[in-house]
Specification:
Blueprint: E1 14-16, H1 58-80, H2 89-111, H3 113-116, H4 120-141, H5 144-156, H6 163-178, H7 185-211, E2 215-218, H8 228-231, E3 243-246, H9 249-258, H10 262-272, H11 277-297, H12 303-308, H13 316-352, H14 365-376, H15 381-384, H16 390-405, E4 407-411, E5 423-429, E6 435-442, E7 454-459, E8 462-463, E9 469-470, E10 472-477, H17 493-511, H18 530-536, H19 543-548, H20 561-569, H21 575-592, H22 600-611, H23 639-658, H24 663-674, H25 682-690, H26 697-702
Parallel strand pairs: 1-7, 6-10
Antiparallel strand pairs: 2-3, 4-5, 5-6, 7-10, 8-9
Helix pairs in contact: 1-2, 1-4, 1-5, 4-7, 5-6, 7-11, 9-14, 13-14, 13-21, 17-18, 18-23, 21-22, 24-25
């Protein structure tokens, strides 16, 4: 199942929660990770501890899926057959934990390829494997006899076990009840069928987005305002001779931010927010209906209430209060920004002869946000990106993370990957040279590839059956502009920020040292998981880190001080409209998951007008491409802003005060926030790092607001 980011900082920024193990009770609409012992296909034995293999044929994917299912059924059958008096730690808890570790890598190895393989047959086989394994996951999550064995261990256990092991047992029981295993068999059967349908629908939603390949054609005049280096990257259509523009991020966002012609922007916006509208609108509305039904079967009034029961926010009422207070505070900022946008628009229309319609539309707001940055803050983003060539950014970013977290990265040469564009690095602890894991970087777009930016956890760091550690493996997947014959790949500052954010998730995956796969890496509360990555975005606004990861692509000169100062002062530009759009998406997500059924297009239109004051374009439905809602962020999108409270407090209270590159603070951050994984609650980790409960002051200040 895919998790996609839409609307975070106006860019694709997201982490895909794929390192959760397949405990028998875990929610089957999440993906589980699985180690590749006993593979039938060949893996690269030269990379120590990495159990993933990418030389897989469609036939092998199908065969391995079947073998994996058979293997897991046997393991769970053995646990389920135990008599209550036989339910010891070794034959219940350890067996299930070892199965999680075993299942983890292979599960990901088989279904990750649907997002990145250049071979459509492999992608299709991966999708089918995902569906079969997801159906299996549902079956395993509903095994009454295994649940009873865990309960028997809990009730009879007299032996002292570790705090993390106790947390694991308690989590299994909690998840079992959330799957209805304490309810009558007739209710369980209903829940099982709903979960299977939810899983299939979610995979279809994701697949539709991955395979979407709309191309629009424009003349050069219709693309007026876009920089020449962008125009040169566009292919020409053979029949018309026009320039071909896709809806992928490297094309869409430059057009929406810089194309002067409003008709071109309108055509792009309509196409972008109509992606998969027919098929995915239907899917999303069925998902919300089924989720509500399942929640009520489990004794919850709504799906939002069901989900938030295991989040830091706890209740829909807490989320609603957070959103409403922030909305009220942001409205004056938004109104001033919209007034300025309209002034700019009127000037533009008069100067170039465009029709002035006296309102800001969805095809306008990014354009005038960009203009505000350029006019009010004098930030020329086209000039700025000349200082961010991909190779320089990558080298600087990797160096910053290594120094800050006490790590060492080494590129692994001649290694097997899924595409020639992909690079791979090992990660070791700089203090003792212990191997912690590996990460892949897959940074450029291609047909059929996952269309946003995300971190995929592929192999969880956890204890193996023999007591040794399995190293963690993650992949960062993005869609940055490819280099051309004339110039290297140049990143916008937004893209640099995306890079830092997603790589923060990679570090969370690799630095975590939990014993159990269920708590490996980023397996923390969903409304806390973004905080560590968001916190690292601050380095993209500070002088020392910016100087380390930038130099002009032609002569290597640093960013001029004046341009750097303008950039850092522009951080609160458009704070009202940007953050209210985040609230809009979060409130839409909450609203549709507080109802039995919903018209998503109508709901989105109503909330957009209420919160942003911008009408949705007729005939569009952005919800049809809102991948979060089919990929594990359902009723949880609020978490992006919620977790910013924590990230800004961590940054302001420790790093800003004690030093941006302070290695002692970096070590504390790694130890208190990254290392525990999900073995501690988020609020406990925060208190350990901050020395107190989190506060909102730094968060509000970052939005240009007062407490």
């Amino acid at each position: 199942m895919v998790i996609i980011c839409i609307g975070f900082k106006g860019k694709a920024s997201y982490f895909v929660r794929k390192t959760i193990c397949c405990t028998p009770f875990f929610k089957a609409t999440h993906k589980f990770t699985f180690a590749l012992q006993h593979l039938q296909f060949t893996r690269n034995m030269s990379v120590r501890g990495n159990l993933l293999s990418w030389k897989i044929t469609p036939v092998q994917i199908e065969q391995s899926s079947k073998e994996l299912i058979d293997k897991m059924k046997k393991i769970y059958d053995d646990v389920g057959k135990l008599k209550p008096e036989e339910a010891s730690y070794d034959v219940v808890v350890k067996v299930l934990a070892d199965a999680d570790c075993f299942y983890a890598v292979k599960r990901n190895n088989l279904d990750f390829l649907q997002h990145v393989s250049a071979d459509k047959d492999v992608r299709d086989a991966s999708v089918q494997a995902d569906k079969k394994l997801s159906e299996h996951d549902v079956e395993m999550s509903m095994l009454q006899d295994v649940f009873d064995s865990v309960l028997a261990f809990k009730e009879r256990n007299k032996d002292k076990i570790s705090a993390e092991a106790q947390r694991y047992v308690d989590r299994l029981i909690k998840l079992g009840k959330r799957n209805g295993l304490h309810l009558p068999k007739t209710v369980q059967d209903q829940i099982k069928e709903i979960k299977k349908r939810l899983s299939d629908l979610s995979i279809d939603f994701s697949t539709n987005l991955n395979e979407e390949n709309t191309v629009l054609e424009f003349t050069k005049d219709e693309l007026v305002g876009l920089p020449e280096d962008f125009i040169k990257t566009l292919e020409k259509a053979e029949a018309s001779g026009k320039l071909k523009v896709t809806l992928k991020y490297p094309h869409y966002f430059p057009c929406m931010k810089k194309c002067r012609n409003p008709e071109t922007r309108k055509k792009m916006e309509i196409a972008f927010n109509s992606r998969c509208i027919k098929e995915n609108t239907k899917i999303l509305e069925e998902l919300t209906k089924l989720r509500h039904k399942k929640a009520q079967l489990l004794g919850f009034p709504t799906h939002a209430a069901f989900v938030l029961d295991m989040r830091m926010a706890k209740t829909p009422e807490a989320v609603k209060s957070f959103q409403e207070v922030l909305t009220k505070k942001l409205q004056p900022l938004k109104e001033a920004e919209m007034k300025l946008f309209l002034e700019y628009k009127q000037e533009e229309c008069k100067r170039y002869g465009y029709e002035f319609d006296s309102k800001i539309n969805y095809w306008d707001y990014r354009y005038y946000m960009t203009m505000t940055e350029e006019k009010k803050y004098a930030v020329d983003h086209n000039k700025l990106k000349e200082f961010f060539p991909m190779e320089v950014v990558t080298k600087g970013l990797l160096g910053i993370y290594q120094d800050l977290l006490g790590l060492k990265f080494t590129e692994v040469k001649r290694v097997e990957t899924w595409h020639a564009d992909v690079t791979m690095y090992s990660v070791t602890d700089a203090a003792n040279n212990d191997l912690l894991g590996y990460f892949y970087l897959d940074l450029f777009p291609r047909e059929g590839k996952y269309g946003h930016a995300a971190c995929f956890g592929l192999q969880p760091g956890c204890l193996l059956p023999d007591g040794s550690r399995q190293v963690s493996v993650a992949a960062m997947v993005a869609n940055f502009t490819k280099p051309t014959a004339d110039q290297p790949s140049l990143l916008t500052h937004d893209e640099v920020e995306t890079y830092f954010h997603e790589f923060g998730h990679v570090m969370h995956q690799i630095c975590a040292r939990a014993d159990f796969a269920l708590f490996s890496g980023t397996n923390v509360e969903r409304d806390f998981v973004e905080a560590p990555s968001q916190m690292l975005e601050n380095w993209c606004w500070e002088r020392e880190p910016l100087n380390r990861m930038s130099s002009h692509y032609k002569d290597g000169c640093p960013i001029p001080d004046q341009l750097l100062e303008k950039l850092t002062s522009s951080r609160i530009a458009n704070a009202g409209i940007f953050n209210l759009r985040q609230i809009l998406l979060g409130k839409f997500d909450q609203t549709i998951h507080l109802k039995a059924e919903v018209d998503t297009a109508a709901t989105l239109a109503e909330l957009s007008k209420e919160i942003l004051g911008i009408p949705c374009t007729e005939g569009t439905n952005m919800a049809a491409s809102f991948g979060h809602l089919a990929g594990g962020y359902d009723a949880q999108y609020y978490g992006y802003l919620w977790s910013e409270v924590f990230c800004m407090d961590m940054f302001s209270s420790r790093f800003k005060k004690e030093g941006i590159m302070n290695k002692t603070v970096g070590a504390d951050y790694r130890r208190c926030i990254l290392q525990p994984g999900g073995s501690l609650d988020g609020d406990v980790m925060l208190r350990n790092f901050l020395g107190r409960d989190p506060q909102q002051d730094a968060f509000l200040a970052s939005k240009g607001l007062k407490a």
